[in-house]
Every structure is written in structure tokens, then in C-alpha cells.
2,3-bisphosphoglycerate-dependent phosphoglycerate mutase
Amino acid sequence: MERLLVLARHGQSEWNLKNLFTGWRNPDLTALGVEEARKAGRWLKSEGYGFDVAFTSSLGRAQRTCALMLGEMDLSDIETIRSEALNERDYGELSGLNKDDARERWGAEQVHLWRRSYDVPPPGGESLKDTAARVLPFYIERILPRVMAGDRVLVAAHGNSLRALVMVLDHMTTQTIAGLEIATGVPLVYRLKADTTVLTKSVLERDIDV
């Protein structure tokens, strides 16, 4: 039994390019983001991976990434489950603001604390802890049972919703998670043991040509 779980952050969005806090706002992918998603799908196909079910968020950039990846793999017709539980963290009052402008307004140290601390939310928004409080129950109740039943599972979501998952899968602490960056369009490939812990993990190298 494979117990395959692949996590992929959406390709570059228009607001990633503009250095804006995005959260639950809904910008589309850039041309580069589209190519990142397609390349991820081509790489997975070239390595012999396939999927039985996909999970994604309620936000367009993740859904489009999921669809582009599956399209490159000739898997557009597989079951795809969408849920707000996998949405990016809500940045509250920071949403739509340029990150440099936010640093000028609140100070670099405060903005860094909002972005990278585990449990300090921005004004009106979510911390990573808050994000994990919705992501992890969904993972346990909906995603993990499919993996453990032998389905090959793709999760196309967001930097922080995936950080919440990786923190658990990789046994990271509230301190070490602060330094984790998940690149756009770069799949993280996990195989799980029978006890649900990680057997192996591999990461697509961005400079591979496929």
C-alpha cells in the first residue's frame, strides 16, 4: 500500500508578485504561477505518480493550481474536494497591504511577529495556531483516512495551511516552524507508515526541466 500524500502550494499569484498580504482574498495566478503549477504536474507524471483524489481550498489560486497539475497528469476527472478548512490564514487588517508599507506603519519587528510567530495573530486575523485549528481536524477527519485506505492523495493549498500540516508531519516545534518557507508550485511528496507517521519525504527541485 502506497499511502501517498503530496502537498503543493499554489503557483505564484498576482499578489505574491506585488508583495501584498493575501489571506482569504482571491487574486489569480500569474503567468509564472500557471507554469509553476503545470511544471509540478509534469514532474509528478514523469516520476510515475498518480492520484485517486485531490483536496483543495475554496480559493481560486489553489483550485486553479490543482486543476492545472491534474490536467498535466491526464487526471482532470478524479474526485476533487474543496474546503475553506484548507484556506490560507486570514491576515485580517493586513490583507491587501504591501508588506513593506506594513513594516513602515507597524514596524518590521511587529510585522515579523505577525507573519512568523506561532500564536500571535495580526489585527482581525489568524495566527498559524488558529489556522492549524481548522486545518488539522480536516486532515484527520477527511484527508488522512483516504491516505490510510490506500488512495493516492494530492492537497493543493496555501503556504500557511500547508505549514500547519508540515509542522505535524515533520514534528516541528513552535520555534522551528517560524523558519519554514514553502515555495510556490513545489510538491512535497510524503509516504506514510501504517501508524500514520512519515516513512519518506522528497521535494521537487525547482530547477529540474520537465
User: Anything to note?
Assistant: The radius of gyration is 17 Å. Residues 4-203 form a domain with the Rossmann fold fold (CATH 3.40.50.1240). Residues 4 and 157 are 17 Å apart (CA to CA).
